[in-house]
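subagent[fold] <- orchestrator: predict structure for attached chain, return tokens only, no commentary.
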Amino acid sequence: MKTAVQVTMYLTESDKWEKVLQTLRSEGVAGASAFHAAAGFLGRNTVHTAGLVEAGGNVPVIIIFVDFEEHVSLFFRSSSNWYRTASSSGKTSPSSRATWINTF
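subagent[fold] -> orchestrator:
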């Protein structure tokens, strides 16, 4: 019996979250969604809120994707520069390191 896995990634609007979503699609992941938060904070930083015309800020973006455990494991192994892809600076940002994996 195969185990389904849900992965939740916490990024910010300044991270390249669209590229992450496109990478997941091109890798054949079963399903993925990106959600913009109305407000949020990272670590001990201040709370950032989104206005109606917010772009490129520090408001959180959450990406959730689902697939079988084998495919997710293979995806993370083959994507050694995964976090560099997500970070707008090319370095691993604290926000792009937060990843939660749940199994069903």
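orchestrator: received. Logging for downstream: Residues 31 and 104 are 15 Å apart (CA to CA). The chain has one domain: 4-103.
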